[in-house]
Amino acid sequence: MASDRISAFDVVLPTPIPDKGKVLNQISAFWFKQTEGIIKNHLISSSVADYPAEAKKYKDQIEGRSMLVVKTEKFPIECVVRGYISGSGWKEYKQTQSVCGVGLPAGLQESQKLPEPIFTPATKEEGGKHDENISFERMCGIVGEDLSEKLRDISIKIYNAAAKIVEPKGLILADTKYEFGLVTVNGKKEIILIDEVLTPDSSRFWETSRYKVGTSPVSFDKQFVRDYLDSIKWERKPPAPPLPSEIVQKTREKYLEAFTRITGERLR
Questions:
Q1: Which terminus has fewer CB within 10 Å in the chain: N or C?
Q2: The pTM is what?
Q3: How far apart are CA 129 and CA 138, in angstroms?
Q4: What pLDDT score was predicted for residue 129?
């Protein structure tokens, strides 16, 4: 179930963004279909008609913003792939010439395309704690070397496939993060893709026509909200301030545009 709530700096804001939950849910459904040849995922159905009887009575509330999924044993890791140097990766690179222990060439500029996509995992924290970027070696210590290598390889495969899909749509996939879980199939544990995938909340999409190395390109995500909150000098601690109507409307428009550009469809 995806609500219209929006968070920034790990704090949930009091003002929802209309249709945001539908956008994230339906973009995820699109990508689950696009990537099922690479890895299986947890989606059973996104049609309420297929849900258990006790869920169907809430159709008006959950249609378009929910999924029936397979329950998994979730990895406590966010699997991040970066094809371009931006965001927290850019900040770390300026200090260490590396990201999460991955050494990078000297002299890179902000938003520059990397020689090849890199895998930069993060811990998946609960209870409002900040996720922490970690090295691949530390990830191995958490989930084991074999599983870590499989998760890394799958993550990069999905990134490369998705980047090719959005390229002719005039979009650049700068970076993205995934979550995975384990399910038991015929007595063996199998990795599957879960949660949301390749949405504006979990990925950084740039418009190709406005992309320029050395700048921070406008993205189809909630950076618009973050920038507003920074402009009013919010200290990034609860309680979060309400969003003015014009910020809500522009943010909604960005989510809807992302949906149409990525899927080629109109939101249902």
A1: C
A2: 0.94
A3: 19
A4: 60
